[in-house]
Amino acid sequence: MPKDGSATRDSILDATQALVLERGFAGMTLDDVVKQVGITKGAFFYHFKSKNDLGKALMKRFSELDARSYDESCARAEKLSRDPLQQLLIFIGLFEEMFEELTEPYPGCLLASYLYELQQFDSATKKMITEAFTRWRTLLKGKLDAAVKQHRPKTRIDTASLADMFTVVLEGAFITAKAVDDPKVIVQQLRHFKNYIELLFAD
């Protein structure tokens, strides 16, 4: 076990993420975090200067893990096919696979939770959120642009807007799954999106 305090820091971030997804950032207190982790306030302030500092660190970690997940899924899709359209379909399929084993609704996306409470955060944290959404758009738009060059779509499309649709579907599915208490909604909506892409480029 590491003795540099990284385990405690990770535990604080894990507890904070769960609390934010459950109550929102404004509804979560440092006392809640300290109690959840089982540490003193002194131990907390050893790792984070304030609640805002904690919120920024949590978003930084989430953004990095999110980027890694997208990059790994993209790399796997590219390994399985040279066709950009098939790569995109595989990419969506990998996300389907990721959520197929859920037995209860997914707790939600930290980025969306922060967006609901933007007034709570400083410009640096807001910039991380914008960069995350822009990264998704750029990655998927690149695949769609390449697909359009090889496969004529049945209608004219705005590839940037269509790229955003993946995020819209996924975030909306998280909300709907929680609202109707049905974890299968996420996979169902991803399949609808994948079917739409297939039909859009069908020969």
Short description:
By secondary structure, the chain is an all-alpha fold. It contains 9 helices and no strands.
How is this structure best described in words?
- By secondary structure, this protein is mostly helical.
- It is 75% helix and 0% strand.
- It has helices at 6-23, 30-37, 41-47, 51-80, 84-100, 110-115, 123-150, 159-180, 184-200.
The fraction of residues assigned to DSSP E strands is: under 5%
Query: What order do the helices and strands follow?
Result: HHHHHHHHH
Number of strands: 0
The average pLDDT score comes to 94
Question: What Rg is obtained from the alpha carbons, in whole angstroms?
Answer: 19 Å
> Biggest sheet, open or closed, and with what strands and sense?
none
Number of continuous helical runs: 9
Main structural class:
mainly alpha
pLDDT < 50 stretches: none
Shape: elongated
**Terminal CA distance:** 56 Å
Which percent range fits the helix content?
Answer: over 70%
Keywords:
single chain, mainly alpha, 203 residues
Strand and helix map with partners:
Layout (H helix, E strand, L loop, with lengths): L5 H18 L6 H8 L3 H7 L3 H30 L3 H17 L9 H6 L7 H28 L8 H22 L3 H17 L3
